[in-house]
Amino acid sequence: MNVRRSAAVLAAVAVIGAAAPAAADPSPSPSQAFPSALYGDKDPKFDGVWRQSLALLAQDTVGVKPPAKSVEWLVRQQCADGGFASYRPDPTTACDARIMLDTNATAAAVQALAALGGHDAVTGKAVDRLKSVQNKDGGWGYSAGGASDINSTSVVIGALAAVGEKPDRVEKGGKSPYDALLKLALPCGGDGDGAFAFQPDKKGKLTANADATAAGVLGALGKGMVVKPGEKSDATCSEPRTPEQAAANGAAYLMAALAKDDAHLMSALAGAEPQPDYGNTADAVVALAARGDTAQAEKSLRWLEKNSATWAAQNGPAAYAQLIFAAHATGTDPRDFGGADLVRQLNATGPAPQAAERTNAAEEKKDSDSDSVFGVWWYVGVCLVAGVGIGFLFSGRRKKQQL
């Protein structure tokens, strides 16, 4: 998720930058502090809403109640028309044409707030906004008017499902999100062999992409980021005429790719040295588990348990959330993830959850009560020894004060 989001952001920025004058850089100066309600300590310019949404959704998934101020921060990031930008440094200022609304951030916020409950007005406006910028092919791009891509379309499908919408009934020009996904599904055989492409290149060619395939499998299944193990079904590749078959084809591609490199995916970034791709491996685990391909999903999860600690620590809340989603999808305890407590590590990247706040308050009350009890018995003791002599009493009090 992190890698694909960075790529999508850079692509969108390049397009916007070519069409509009540069806006002032909203990055906080070294002297500015990030919002105390925000999870993560890195510049939120490109991923503030995204990582906050994933953090809150992951906490809810494991039964942790997020801090109220962190939820409120996310709610206040919404613009009046329902959309969310990647990050608004000053949410008291109305959104204008310089604010680039982000379908990925909007859809992620919907999934998080829908799971938390009590935010129907916010999620309703956000979904209306997403519907208003749906492309004629049925899909979504990163920003309004951008060419449809698998990742954006899939995360929006997850948002629709989260609020009880039927993705196949959300149409533009007679096309649903599933029509857009099927257009980006590669045929069986050859290099693609059932994978999904992120989007066509300038010549209309589709190129297999493991990250896009993981997203495409979830989208084709109508699932969001949080899934439970699905029922095992055939993963043999055949012509992708239905979303279910496209998901099966994508799953077969992912299983082959994971088996090729010791149960993990490799980075596909152009010009980069080949290296394990932890985030995309976690996404693949979720996608496979959602379809019921649990054997490979669990094998890849074991690899993540052994190898992802440094990556997660470097990438913060969104990375911990991805691992929690992967653990949850396979029925693994995220509090014992290869000996690590992912929940505790995620919580440590931001303000204390409400449960922790209540625990601290209870401890403080307990200490206070203990002090009160001690005070009562001290007073009784003083009264009992009063007959021994006033001098002894004052002496005892002076000694107690000196301790």
UniProtKB/TrEMBL annotation:
The chain crosses the membrane at residues 376-394. InterPro entries: SQ_cyclase_C, Terpenoid_cyclase/PrenylTrfase. Keywords: Membrane, Metal-binding, Signal, Transmembrane, Transmembrane helix. Residues 68-199 form the Squalene cyclase C-terminal domain. Pfam families: SQHop_cyclase_C. Residues 1-24 form the signal peptide. This is Squalene cyclase C-terminal domain-containing protein. The lineage of its organism: Bacteria, Bacillati, Actinomycetota, Actinomycetes, Kitasatosporales.
